[in-house]
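Usage

Read records sequentially. Each one opens with the input sequence:
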Amino acid sequence: MSLRVFILAGEPSGDRLGAALMRGLKELSPAVSFEGVGGSLMQAERLRSQFPMEELSVMGIAEVLPKYFDLKRRIQETADAVVAMQPDVMITIDSPDFSLRVAKLVKDASDIRTVHYVAPSVWAWRPGRATKMAKVIDHVLALLPFEPPYMEAAGMECDFVGHPVVAEPQATEAEISAFRAVFNLGDAPVLLALPGSRRSEVARLADVFGAALREFHAKHPEHRIVVPAAAHVAPLVREKLTDWPEGCIVLDPADHAVAEFAAYKRAAFATANLALAASGTVSLELAAARTPMVIAYRFNWLTWQIMKRMALIDTVTLVNLVSETRVVPECLGPECTAENIAARLDQVLSAPDAQQDAMRLTMDRVGEGGDAPGLRAARAVLERLPQV
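and closes with the structure output:
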């Protein structure tokens, strides 16, 4: 039976999710056809993007106001294309500011089934988002195992399909050996420093990370510090390293072929015995590599005040949340100081096994060892379609 899908992603992480989902749909329903908006990965899976996805990526980060009318036009164009196509299902992926506006216009004009991939973090703050979303979304694909009840309570169908981190390859012993040889690490212990993937994060965290690492390194000079950097922040990372301990190694995508950089990055994660990271999904990447961590994050004053009042949880680290423990130390807001971070790094270094059970449990709960999340997501979409 043929299946017609309109699929929409607005940023690189959504492009990866979309491509994996498309592969799963093609495996389970070979006659599937796609229209929509996506990046290079989704286009490689037979999608002809209606316009460059990068327009949405830019708009979604910092340029919404000056390009408001362009964004509004793209929302209307996309909704019109969905209604004209009359697909069996429309799948929107993350980017809620764009995706849910498109979904509203589609629902206003049709009864097309709508699926949204990535549940909003209503368990953390602003729980009313789920109720609002339920007005335009029929079915949610959730990345975290505790999310379905929140979506179902708001009136949407929801399936946990696994987090994409479980589909990422882990380093082989050969890759680890090659990484250590190329960067002259010998058998030195490695500390990973991950000050964020956005320029604003690096700008806010680099100085306090550097001060904390200087304090840590003074007590543990045998450690080599490795800093994997995203391409768009690598120059800023290099600039900020002037006040970090000497000998830091920056892994910059600009210095390596794509596959080579990916191998070096996963080898760095696997060989490190300790990590200092900004808050975010990187905690799951570290858990997948079984690398003990300290999480630190600074917010501007107003953001911190709002978060303190609106937050529904007492931790921002996914390993703590998913494992239902609090074993990963956090230095957040006013507690994000060099002294606190260095002390937590010492604490984790002295008891490196304390996080291992929580990391194993976390990875098991987010789908490690099971079907790939893209295949699980495809199966969930198909099983809930009334006509398939």
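Summary fields computed downstream for this record:
- The chain has 17 helices and twelve strands.
- The mean pLDDT is 93.
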